[in-house]
């Protein structure tokens, strides 16, 4: 089978598609014919050796996919050959075949094609966990989303709207902000051109945002925290801008703001019951058309490395999906 291979941690450009032996599903594992696999920002970090988890070399990047079960290992009863499924894996999704832990495999939802299935669990799982489980977003509250046209950003907009919040989307271009409006954002801020804090103040009558969803970090983080209301919550999602911000803690003290860390992947391992409840909620919203991944690009496996590079260079919108059979 063909797979995008990382042979040494380093520049994304060194990734190559190679012919490798098909994986064999051991006990508790499921072998999947990959029909679609979505790119996420951490894929770019993993291949460069910049992520907290470092897979054994060589490996294929890619952590979420949808496809058809080819075979199951000993003891697997949840799924069988021929089932259409979604799977989360530590790595290995950018390949024609992939082995997943049976516990991380779920049926493709009714009305969902493989592309949407591949782009669903990680981004929507993260954003619901952040906004509901950690942030406890309430109906009528105002949420500021940074990097709002990215993968987790679009999911945060749609989920916050489904929860009855008012959403201010912040991103770096008019095209990105138009997409945010399309998926439900009430207000937009181009933070490449406008003063983030002043615009949030103006849009909230001086009160500030009740909650901030920040997958970007860098220089925007402090401005966003300053734009948070009295007793507001600031969700630390990620650092796509590269720098991990050092925040003056008096900003938390002065307005009794809460700075809340979010680590969805670890939470799924520690608290699978809550993850299951959240996935049921997301499935119900998908059935009602309230959440639906925005797929901006469909990419053949041979071009997956270049697409990971585009995402890491701020050129992606919504989700980029790799189609190994294209
Ligand atoms: N905490 C968790 O559990 C969790 C789970 C999933 C993902 N994450 C993190 O969330 C972040 C976003 O992931 P994603 O998959 O949604 O990524 P994405 O689709 O690439 O979106 C990231 C957004 O960040 C913004 N950005 C600002 N400066 C950037 C820069 N220098 N390079 C690249 N992007 C930049 C871009 O929007 P603008 O151009 O509009 O600024 C971009 O759309 C990542 O840091 C990821 O590790 C965390």
Notes on the protein architecture:
The structure is a single chain. The chain is α/β, with parallel strands linked by helices and 326 residues long. It folds into two domains: 2-120 and 293-323, Medium-chain alcohol dehydrogenases, catalytic domain (Quinone Oxidoreductase, Chain A, domain 1, Alpha-Beta Complex); 123-265, Alpha-Beta Complex (Quinone Oxidoreductase, Chain A, domain 1). It contains eleven helices and 15 strands. The strands form three sheets. Strands 3, 4, 5, 6, 7, 14 and 15 form a seven-stranded mixed β-sheet that branches. The longest helix has 16 residues, at 272-287. NADP nicotinamide-adenine-dinucleotide phosphate binds at residues 40-42, 126, 147, 149-153, 171-172, 176, 215-216, 237-242, 262-265, 311, 314, 316. NADP nicotinamide-adenine-dinucleotide phosphate binds next to α1, α4 and α9.
Question: What keyword list fits this structure?
Answer:
six-stranded parallel sheet, 15 strands, seven-stranded mixed sheet, alpha/beta, single chain, 11 helices, binds NADP nicotinamide-adenine-dinucleotide phosphate, Quinone Oxidoreductase, Chain A, domain 1, 326 residues
Portion of residues in beta strands equals 25-35%
Report low-confidence residues grouped into runs of 5 or more: none
Q: How many domains comprise the coordinates?
A: 2
User: Termini, distance in Å?
Assistant: 14 Å
**CATH class (first level) name of the largest domain:** Alpha Beta
Provide the succession of SSEs.
Answer: EEEHEEEEHHEHEHEHEHEHEHHEHE
The CATH topology assignment of the largest domain is Quinone Oxidoreductase, Chain A, domain 1
């Amino acid at each position: 089978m063909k797979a995008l291979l990382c042979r040494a941690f380093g520049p994304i450009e060194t990734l190559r598609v190679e012919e490798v032996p098909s994986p064999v599903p051991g006990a508790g594992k499921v072998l999947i014919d990959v029909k679609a696999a979505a790119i996420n920002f951490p894929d770019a970090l993993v291949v460069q050796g910049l992520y907290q988890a470092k897979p054994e070399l060589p490996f294929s990047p890619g952590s979420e996919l949808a496809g058809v079960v080819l075979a199951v290992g000993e003891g697997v009863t949840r799924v069988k050959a021929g089932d259409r499924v979604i799977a989360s894996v530590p790595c290995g999704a950018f390949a024609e075949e992939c082995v997943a832990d049976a516990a991380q495999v779920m049926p493709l939802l009714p009305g969902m094609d493989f592309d949407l299935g591949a782009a669903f669990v990680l981004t929507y799982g993260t954003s619901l966990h952040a906004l509901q489980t950690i942030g406890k977003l309430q109906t009528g509250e105002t949420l500021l989303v940074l990097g709002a046209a990215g993968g987790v950003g679009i999911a945060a907009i749609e989920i916050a709207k489904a929860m009855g919040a008012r959403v201010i989307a912040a991103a770096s271009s008019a095209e990105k902000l138009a997409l945010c409006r399309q998926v439900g954002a009430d207000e937009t801020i181009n933070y490449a051109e406008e003063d983030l804090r002043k615009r949030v103040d103006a849009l909230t009558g001086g009160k500030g945002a009740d909650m901030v969803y920040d997958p970007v970090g860098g220089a925007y983080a402090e401005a966003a925290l300053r734009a948070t209301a009295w007793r507001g919550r600031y969700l630390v999602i990620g650092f796509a801008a590269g720098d991990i911000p050092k925040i003056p803690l008096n900003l938390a003290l002065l307005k009794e703001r809460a700075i809340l860390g979010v680590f969805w992947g670890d939470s799924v391992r520690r608290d699978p019951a809550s993850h299951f409840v959240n996935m049921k909620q997301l499935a119900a919203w998908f059935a009602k058309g309230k959440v639906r991944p925005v797929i901006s690009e469909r990419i053949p496996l041979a071009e997956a490395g270049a697409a990971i590079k585009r995402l890491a260079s701020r050129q992606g919108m919504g989700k980029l999906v790799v189609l190994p059979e294209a």
